[in-house]
Amino acid sequence: MSFHEKSAWAMAVILLAGLGWYVRTIAGMSAGMEQLAPPVLPVVIAYIVVIVILSIVGHVLIAVAKPSEADDMMDERDKLIAARAGNVSGVLLGVGVLAALGAYLFTYDGNLLFHAAFLALMVSQIAEYGARIVYYRGGV
């Protein structure tokens, strides 16, 4: 397994955990209300900071486990995989944002718009790393 595939696995797991935490936090905040909780800047900042820290730690651990791979440049296959996975991610992001905007047109709920767009961003990134894993495993 190459460094780039290990990196994709680490990022997918980290982002899935972050998604779960964010959804659970917003659901908990919304439980006592009769509407979706508004976006709270400290929650968004905490999400971002934790993702960044876990990403750094994860990549350092991957690099320490096999230092010879850590400095590998992306070859043609890696570049093709990254491009194809990026296309999948872009489509999902576009569909997710359009769905968020469509939901806003029917509900006029800005809180829903924010959370749905943020969710689309998270899902598209998870899908990008998931696609990379699939492409590495399936052979592109």
Automatic annotation (TrEMBL):
Q: Does the keyword Transmembrane apply?
A: yes
Q: Which domain of life is it from?
A: Bacteria
Membrane spanning residue stretches: 7-24, 44-64, 85-106, 112-131
The entry's protein name is: DUF2178 domain-containing protein
Q: Which keywords accompany this UniProt record?
A: Membrane, Transmembrane, Transmembrane helix
